[in-house]
Amino acid sequence: MSKKIFATTVLVLSVLVMAACATTAPAEVAEEAAPAEAAAGLTLSGAASMTWSAEDLAAMPQTEADYTDKEGATTTFSGVSFSELLTAAGVADYASVTMLAADGYSAEVTADELSACANCIVAVDEDGSFRSVMPDLGGKMNVKDLVELQVK
Length: 152
Description:
This protein is an alpha+beta fold. The protein folds into two domains: 1-39; 42-151, Oxidoreductase, molybdopterin-binding domain (Sulfite Oxidase, Chain A, domain 2, Alpha-Beta Complex). 36% of the residues lie in helices and 32% in strands. It has four helices and nine strands; from the N terminus they run αββαββαββαβββ. The protein has helices at residues 2-38, 54-58, 82-88, 111-115, and strands spanning 42-46, 50-52, 63-68, 74-81, 96-101, 106-110, 121-124, 130-133, 144-151. Strands 1, 2, 3, 4, 5, 6, 7, 8 and 9 form a nine-stranded mixed β-sheet that branches. A hairpin with a 3-residue loop joins β1 (42-46) and β2 (50-52). It is globular and about 80 Å long. The termini are far apart.
């Protein structure tokens, strides 16, 4: 009989400990995630240094651009032209811009390609992340989760 009481006691204590841990863990995760979200932004580096938030981009002049995915679905994005961003950062002379995604993916566009593409923009996705929309250039130039523009 004492084995059953001992086993029941251990089981009840285990359930109580697990319940206590489960109620505190999400709060700790939320506290840790908040600073990372607040630090989100698009950084320009190289020839100049600047960081924009989604709110900063929304306050700048907007241009619309269409993006057609591999399946043929077209989405219209609104965002800030690359020329507007570079001008705001004080960049007048450059050879290229490398667009860097959070996962390490990168794509490079030349100054000539950007100057010929009036509707190449940086847009803010519904989830708050940044993306390049480059309708007049190849599909690999459309960088999702864009975090940095490296100006050379």
